[in-house]
Specification:
It contains 14 helices and two strands. The chain is globular, with a radius of gyration of 22 Å. Bound molecules: benzoyl coenzyme A.
């Protein structure tokens, strides 16, 4: 007789996040007809801007900047967890972590491809990353010290990514919004496996509980900082919101993330490292201590604990992969010549 499947109970999510997701997945209720006007009319009518539409150069540049940073975050973001793949405690955990890290490579690919529809080239974006002209999210510059870090990182930073990215499924640029739908489905598996791994550790030995609690305490503030500087100091938010690239401000999303996390932490039995955190009945949100934005600025400027190591590793693997890129380009060239000969083109 089959055994009942046991495991952690479902994670509480807020109605807000579910509503955002339902809206993003809903078929376009306005049908196929698009307004006749130009860019501003499409934005006002909540229609997607597509690659062949006219768009202000600032809109294009903002998207290339954000898509580049987003894609690099996925690709460089493979490093903190990849370290633990050969060190996973069981075959099951190893397979799950391997799948998650491979998904991140795929997310990078969708996002580079979305940026390419705006005229950017992958070569230029990667060159900008390696030269330090384009960045990636700050949390990736923190170390994963123990196995529990893979769980805390997934629960917290993938959780933060979901809160940020579900609204991005409704961003105004069509290829970005469509890429995000798929990314979010996969992120929810990443988040869930982190929760599951923490759940098991929190119900294990005292040493496992201590390791899990320590990892959660170290990842809490890097996760909160993922949402960027406070609204008053965010350089791009106002324009990005007017163009409906961003749908919510940095502080709004940070607050939503805290509201999503607290009931999940209670279920797990972990303590979030913020003594000031409490429910505010008037605001109907949790009060919390914001991250240290001075530290965020330092990490963005390249002075985080692992910035140098992450970029150095990226440069090394980029160099090691050179022969693959050259072989693929040569194959494509020969293939095009052969086809060109056959078609007479
Ligand atoms: N870290 O005006 P602001 C993942 C920069 S990967 C570093 O508010 P904006 C995962 C910002 O770029 C998913 N830099 O900017 C992977 C800007 O600099 P520049 C990653 C930051 O663009 C593996 C400046 O500060 N998700 O989840 O309106 C394992 C001023 O900021 C950060 C995304 O990338 C930061 N935390 O808003 C596990 C989401 N914050 O360009 C998990 C897509 C700000 O002027 N990106 N900066 O030099 C976004 O949603 C937005 O770009 C941000 C910033 C909310 C991050």
């Amino acid at each position: 007789m089959s055994q009942p499947i046991s495991g952690p109970p479902p994670m509480p999510v807020t109605d807000w996040l579910s509503a955002q997701w339902d809206d993003a997945c809903a078929l376009d209720p306005r049908g196929d007809a698009r307004p006749d006007g130009g860019f501003d009319d499409l934005i006002a009518a909540e229609r997607k801007i597509e690659p062949r539409d006219q768009m202000p150069s600032g809109y294009r540049e903002t998207l290339i900047r954000q898509l580049g940073q987003h894609a690099h975050s996925e690709v460089v973001g493979m490093q903190p967890e990849a370290h633990w793949i050969p060190r996973a405690p069981t075959l099951h955990r190893k397979a799950v972590l391997l799948a998650k890290v491979q998904d991140e490579a795929g997310h990078g690919l969708y996002l580079y491809a979305a940026a390419e529809t705006l005229g950017a080239t992958r070569e230029d974006m990667l060159a900008a990353l390696l030269a330090g002209r384009q960045g990636y999210l700050s949390f990736i510059n923190y170390p994963t010290l123990t196995w529990a870090d893979t769980a805390a990182l997934a629960w917290l930073t993938d959780g933060a990514a979901i809160v940020n990215q579900v609204p991005l499924c409704q961003t105004s640029y069509g290829p970005y919004a469509r890429a995000m739908l798929r990314v979010c489905r996969e992120e929810s598996f990443h988040h869930r496996q982190g929760f599951d791994s923490l759940w098991v550790m929190m119900r294990g030995t005292a040493a496992q509980r201590e390791m899990a609690a320590d990892a959660v305490a170290r990842w809490w503030y890097p996760a909160l900082a993922m949402f960027g500087p406070p609204d008053a100091r965010s350089t791009h938010s106002a324009q990005s919101m007017a163009w409906r690239i961003k749908r919510f401000s940095n502080d709004e999303l940070r607050q939503r993330f805290v509201d999503v996390c607290v009931p999940q932490a209670e279920l797990l039995g972990v303590t979030l490292p913020d003594p000031a955190m409490r429910w505010n009945a008037e605001r109907r949100h949790y009060d919390f201590t914001p991250p240290d934005f001075g530290e965020l600025t330092q990490v963005i400027r390249g002075h985080g604990p692992c910035n140098r190591q992450r970029l150095e590793h990226r440069r090394q693997v980029h160099e090691e992969g050179r022969w693959v890129r050259e072989a693929a380009a040569e194959y494509a060239r020969k293939h095009a010549m052969r086809n060109g000969g056959q078609d007479g083109t």
